Amino acid sequence: MDHSHDDRGLSWELVESKRDRSYKLFSVHINRSRSPRTGQVHEFQVLDSPDWVAVIAITPQNELVMVEQFRHGTGELSLEPPGGLVKDGQSPERSAREELQEETGYVANTWESLGWMHPMPALFTNRFHVFLARDAIPTGNLNPDETEEIETMLVPVSRVKDYIKSGRIRCSVMIAALHLFLEREE
Predict the structure, then answer these.
(1) Pairing outcome for strands 137-138 and 106-107
(2) CA distance 43 to 16
(3) Rounded CA gap, 18 and 62, in Å?
C-alpha cells in the first residue's frame, strides 16, 4: 500500500544528518529527527549502503542455482541464491548478471525483474532487487571475490519450501526473494 501521499502525521522531520563513519559495505549516519507527536528531536543511527541484488536462477531441469558460503556475521555456513552489492554506476540487472556468473559460473539469457524491497527499513537506506534468470547453464568459469569461498549447489525447485521450513535456508532477505519467485510460479 502506498502511503506516500498521506502519511497521517507519522513522518518525522529530518533536522540534521551527518556521516559518522564510512566502511566498505556501508556508512553510518547520525540523523537528528523531530517527532511529529511531541516535537522533540531524537538521534537515530542509519546505515547507508549500496543497493543489493539476488538472482533466482533456474536451470532447464527446474533446479535452483544456490551458493553455500561462510557468513561472518553468524559464523556459520549459509545456503542462499547468489547475490551481492550493486556496483557503482551499474544497473541492478547488470550487477545481478555479473554476480550469477562470478559466484556460480552460470549464465542465463532470459532475465526478468521480480521487484524490489527494503531489506531492513529501520536501519538501512537501500533497496534489495530480485531477478529471475531462466534456463541458467554452467560455463565452468567462476570468478569469486578474493574474500568468497563458495560452493555452488543445485536445489530442485520442488524442495525450496522444505529447505526454508527445515531451516536449511535461513537468510531472511533471501527467503523473501524466494517467496517472490514461488508466488510468481503458483
Answers:
(1) antiparallel
(2) 9
(3) 48
Cβ atoms of residues 66 and 79 within 8 Å: yes
Rounded to 5 degrees, what are φ and ψ at 126? Answer: -90, 175
Q: For 20-49, write each residue's pLDDT tens digit.
A: 999 988 999 999 999 999 999 999 999 999
At 41-58, the pLDDT tens digits run 999 999 999 999 999 999
Identify whether the C-beta of residue 76 lies closer than 8 Å to the C-beta of residue 168: no
Those residues whose C-beta lies under 8 Å from the C-beta of residue 80, and which sit 6 or more positions away, are 54, 66, 67, 68, 69, 169, 171, 174
- What are 64-118's pLDDT values in tens digits? 999 999 999 999 999 999 999 999 999 999 999 999 999 999 999 999 999 999 9
Task: Please give the Cα distance from 89 to 18 (Å, whole number).
Answer: 24
Q: Kindly report the CA angle at 18 between 28 and 52, in degrees rounded to 5? A: 40
